[in-house]
């Protein structure tokens, strides 16, 4: 059966439809092999999409044939040019040494780091005491038994000296169990009036639980002068708590430490439950944040001071506890685990 003679307009429509389909397929080819498959599909001599159209040109009327032939050749050339241009692109990408950039990939987050919540709290506490005339003092973490215990009026049989509570180092040194030895070191070096704040890490032979860690931060405070009294202690620490916690209520409870007499502990109303009782405050509504007291005369004498002339007061605060309260962290351990998901969310 002889094929019908196609009209010029039908022919041109079909030609441009095939050309339109070819363009995105060429552009999408990612390799030389893929591009070759596209080439065969469109301009392959036998089975290419364009080859039946060249047969059609031959069957067209003499009037239409030149226009159809020109249109066919132009379209065929354009497809060939597109194939050549894309082949060059694929070649360039393959030989270029620069890694291929995928602009659709999500960006990499930049970890900027943050201050640890305990560090933030220590800095804030230091700022408040600096306004009251305190300066920062530091001392060694590896201490002697004399500075850590003896000079602070611990009796030789005090349980804190036990191997079970203190980490001893080779050669008789130990890891300080509190920042209080810096009281002695400061008083030995500087004559009163003395007002120092001593931040630092301390070590105890404790295992981790919700409220204990084998290493933790402490801040010691010491004020020694003539005529210093418990009123100064109470007023200063109450002022501190108001500044730090805002309107939080505080209370002092009598306590005992070998290096102070009298001794007390200061509690702050639990900021997590606002005093109504929760797991962090063990249902009492109060959290102990520091121990304090009037410096024991024998501590002043250990440091070479005249205990008849001078008096002083001191405190030891747990900034980890304070940070727990400030940042609502029910489990103390989270502060020391170094999990950036927790710390990054809290730090600044
Ligand atoms: N050193 C004590 C401790 O680690 C804390 C402390 C209590 C320090 C009373 C003081 C103080 O200076 O006066 O448990």
Summarize the structure in words.
With 348 residues, the chain is α+β, with helices and mostly antiparallel strands. It folds into two domains: 8-97, no CATH class; 117-346, BirA Bifunctional Protein, domain 2. It has eleven helices and nine strands. The protein has helices at residues 8-28, 32-43, 51-59, 65-95, 117-131, 145-148, 181-189, 230-245, 297-302, 319-327, 340-346; strands at residues 135-136, 142-143, 174-175, 194-203, 215-225, 250-257, 260-269, 286-295, 311-317. The strands form two sheets. The protein has a seven-stranded mixed sheet with strand order 1-4-5-9-8-7-6, with helices on both faces. A hairpin with a 2-residue loop joins strand 6 (250-257) and strand 7. Helix 5 packs across helix 10. The longest helix has 31 residues, at 65-95. The radius of gyration is 41 Å and the shape is rod-shaped. The termini are far apart. 3,4-dihydroxyphenylalanine (DAH) binds at residues 178, 180, 220, 257, 260, 291-293, 314-316. Residues 178, 180, 220, 257, 260, 291-293, 314-316 line the site of 3,4-dihydroxyphenylalanine.
Summarize the structure.
With 348 residues, this protein is α+β, with helices and mostly antiparallel strands. It has helices spanning 8-28, 32-43, 51-59, 65-95, 117-131, 145-148, 181-189, 230-245, 297-302, 319-327, 340-346; strands at residues 135-136, 142-143, 174-175, 194-203, 215-225, 250-257, 260-269, 286-295, 311-317.
The count of domains is: 2
Strand order of the largest sheet: 1-4-5-9-8-7-6
Main sheet characteristics: 7 strands, mixed
Which runs of at least 5 residues are low in confidence (pLDDT < 50)?
none
The Cα radius of gyration reads 41 Å
């Amino acid at each position: 059966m002889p094929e019908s003679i196609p009209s010029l307009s039908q022919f041109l429509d079909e030609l441009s439809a095939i050309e339109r389909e070819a363009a995105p397929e060429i552009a999408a080819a990612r390799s030389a092999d893929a591009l070759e498959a596209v080439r065969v599909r469109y301009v392959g001599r036998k089975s290419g999409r364009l080859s039946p159209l060249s047969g059609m040109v031959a069957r067209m009327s003499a009037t239409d044939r030149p226009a159809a032939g020109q249109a066919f050749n132009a379209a065929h050339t354009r497809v060939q040019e597109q194939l050549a241009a894309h082949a060059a692109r694929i070649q360039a990408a393959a030989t270029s040494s620069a890694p291929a950039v995928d602009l659709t990939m999500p960006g990499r987050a930049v970890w900027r780091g943050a201050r640890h919540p305990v560090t933030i709290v220590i800095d804030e506490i230091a700022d408040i005491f600096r306004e009251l005339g305190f300066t920062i003092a530091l001392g060694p973490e590896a201490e002697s038994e004399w500075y850590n215990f003896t000079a602070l009026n611990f009796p030789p049989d005090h349980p804190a000296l036990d191997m079970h509570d203190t980490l001893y180092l080779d050669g008789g040194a130990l890891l300080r169990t509190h920042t209080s030895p810096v009281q002695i070191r400061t008083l030995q070096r500087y004559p009163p009036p003395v007002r120092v704040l001593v931040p630092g890490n301390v070590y105890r032979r404790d295992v981790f639980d919700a409220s204990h860690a084998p290493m933790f931060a402490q801040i010691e405070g010491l004020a020694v002068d003539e005529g210093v009294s418990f009123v100064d202690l109470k007023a200063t620490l109450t002022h501190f708590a108001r500044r730090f916690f805002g309107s939080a209520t505080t209370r002092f409870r009598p306590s005992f430490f070998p290096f102070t007499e009298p001794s007390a502990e200061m509690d702050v109303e639990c900021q997590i439950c606002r005093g109504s009782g929760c797991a962090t405050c063990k249902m009492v509504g109060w959290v102990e944040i520091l121990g304090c007291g009037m410096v024991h005369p024998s501590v002043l004498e250990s440091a070479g001071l005249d205990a008849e002339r001078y008096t002083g007061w001191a405190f030891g605060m747990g900034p980890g506890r304070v940070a727990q309260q400030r940042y609502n962290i029910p489990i103390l351990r989270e502060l020391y685990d170094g999990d950036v998901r927790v710390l990054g969310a809290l730090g600044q």
